[in-house]
């Protein structure tokens, strides 16, 4: 009986196995190359770049030629814009509010936001002429920052022009009235003006060849009338060149400094177009950012130079520095930042031992080269 049961179970097992193999796929051994091809994934095709969507032309900004606007711009002053003449008139008395008053809501320059109605336009798209009427005594901080104007009329009543009031402005004609007694720091910095003058009756300031001076012409305040000027010679009376006095004067390529110059303040030639300059004897310090980001290619420094401050000679085009004396102290970081690696430092042969201590062939990482100072300042390399 046991044998019979075992035979029946074995038969059932064979029958089940046969039924299971009826629909099974035939597995064949693929050649080696075929199997490798199946294992290696097919290269993914680089998708074609998606073309940028074609932008619909932006609608033109609103036409203000027949419109008129008015609002308060001081405790006792109002502004009006006449669209047909592109003229901004400020009337009243006292002070025009500064740029940052009330989170910018009272800023004349920021009227572009209000008037543009969502369009990105500038105030000079609306205004070409500014008239400040009699009674206004003070133009506050940054009021006309970056304005581009054809005409500007300042009143005789004006007494103060505060810090940055006309910073970066471009104006064809700029005339400072007789009663102005205060011009704040950087009030006229980086301006571009073709015709600049100070009323000869002004007791505090004067001008010559586009340069704003104190009345005694001992201090350069700012080179305001710099448009189209490539060379400038300062008068012998000048003792001080003020902070950022020639900043942004990109058309100015050459300047003659007086022998009696005593001090040049920080940033004096920042981002200027000066290509070559000779610093006169007596100057002891090259102040912070004095020539930073300028077009300077060559500079001659006197034997009186004792210190170089941060970013003083950070000039990407500087090829040659001529020292007429001993190596100065280098104070602060990045004095020579952005200078070309092959810039050459030149020094008088009589100071050889000071420039080549311990057999040094470089100074501050730049190659050094001596010259015969008995013949004066050497020619350019």
Characterization of the model:
It is a single chain. By secondary structure, the protein is mostly beta strands. The protein has two domains: 64-201, Ribonuclease Inhibitor (Leucine-rich repeat, LRR (right-handed beta-alpha superhelix), Alpha-Beta Horseshoe), CATH 3.80.10; 228-381, Leucine-rich repeat, LRR (right-handed beta-alpha superhelix). It contains four helices and 28 strands. The strands form seven sheets. It has a six-stranded mixed β-sheet, with no helix packed on it. Strands 1-2-3-5-8 form a five-stranded mixed β-sheet, with no helix packed on it. The longest helix has 19 residues, at 2-20. The radius of gyration is 37 Å and the shape is elongated. The relative contact order is 0.05.
Which helices and strands occur, and which strands form pairs?
Blueprint (H helix, E strand, L loop, with lengths): L1 H19 L11 H8 L28 E7 L2 E6 L4 E6 L1 E3 L14 H6 L12 E4 L3 E4 L8 E2 L1 E3 L6 E2 L8 E7 L5 E2 L8 E7 L6 E4 L2 E4 L4 E5 L7 E3 L6 E2 L12 E3 L6 E2 L11 E3 L6 E2 L11 E4 L5 E2 L11 E4 L5 E2 L13 E5 L3 H4 L6 E2 L2 E6 L10
Parallel strand pairs: 3-5, 4-6, 5-8, 6-9, 7-10, 9-11, 10-12, 15-17, 16-18, 17-19, 20-22, 21-23, 22-24, 23-25, 24-26, 26-28
Antiparallel strand pairs: 1-2, 2-3, 13-14, 14-15, 27-28
Task: Summarize, please.
With 381 residues, this protein is mostly beta strands.
Order the strands across the largest sheet as they lie in space: 20-22-24-26-28-27
Could you give the distance between the termini? 119 Å
Shape: elongated
The appropriate CATH architecture of the largest domain is Alpha-Beta Horseshoe
The CATH top-level class label of the largest domain: Alpha Beta
Number of helix segments? Answer: 4
- Please identify the structural class as seen in this structure: mainly beta
Rg is: 37 Å
What is the percentage of strand-forming residues? 25-35%
How many strand units? 28
Mean pLDDT level: 84
CATH topology of the largest domain: Leucine-rich repeat, LRR (right-handed beta-alpha superhelix)
Helix content: under 10%
Largest sheet report: 6 strands, mixed
Tally of distinct domains: 2
- Which blocks of ≥5 consecutive residues have pLDDT under 50? 20-46, 52-58, 101-110, 116-120
């Amino acid at each position: 009986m046991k044998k019979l049961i075992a035979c029946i179970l074995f038969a059932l097992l064979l029958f089940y196995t046969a039924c299971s193999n009826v629909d099974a796929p035939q597995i064949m051994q693929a050649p080696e190359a075929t199997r490798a091809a199946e294992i290696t994934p097919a290269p993914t095709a680089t998708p074609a770049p998606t073309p940028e969507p074609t932008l619909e032309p932006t609608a033109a900004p609103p036409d203000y030629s027949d419109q008129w606007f008015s609002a308060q711009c001081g405790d006792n002053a109002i502004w009006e814009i006449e669209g047909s003449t592109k003229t901004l008139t400020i009337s009243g008395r006292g002070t025009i509010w500064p740029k940052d008053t009330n989170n910018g809501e009272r800023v004349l320059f920021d009227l572009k936001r209000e008037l543009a109605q969502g369009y990105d336009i500038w105030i000079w798209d609306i205004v070409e002429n500014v008239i400040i009427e009699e009674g206004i005594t003070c133009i506050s901080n940054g009021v006309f920052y970056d304005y581009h104007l054809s005409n500007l009329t300042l009143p005789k009543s004006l007494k103060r022009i505060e810090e940055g009031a006309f910073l970066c402005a471009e104006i064809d004609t700029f005339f400072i009235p007789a009663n102005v007694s205060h011009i704040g720091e950087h009030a006229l910095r980086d301006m571009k003006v073709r015709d600049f003058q100070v009323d000869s009756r002004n007791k505090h300031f004067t001008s010559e060849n586009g340069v704003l001076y104190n009345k005694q012409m001992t201090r350069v305040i700012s080179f305001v009338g710099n448009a189209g000027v490539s060379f400038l010679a300062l008068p012998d009376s000048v003792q001080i060149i003020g902070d950022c006095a020639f900043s942004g004067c990109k058309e100015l390529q050459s300047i003659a400094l007086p022998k009696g110059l005593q001090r040049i303040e920080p940033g004096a030639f920042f981002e200027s177009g000066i290509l070559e300059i000779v610093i006169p004897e007596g100057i002891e310090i090259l102040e912070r950012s004095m020539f930073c980001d300028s077009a300077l290619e060559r500079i001659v420094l006197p034997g009186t130079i004792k210190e170089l401050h941060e970013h003083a000679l950070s000039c990407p085009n500087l090829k040659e520095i001529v020292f007429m004396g001993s190596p100065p102290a280098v104070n602060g970081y990045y004095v020579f930042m952005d200078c070309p690696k092959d810039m050459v430092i030149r020094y008088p042969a009589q100071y050889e031992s000071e420039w080549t201590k311990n057999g040094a062939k470089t100074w501050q990482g730049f190659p050094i080269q001596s010259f015969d100072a008995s013949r004066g300042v050497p020619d350019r390399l």
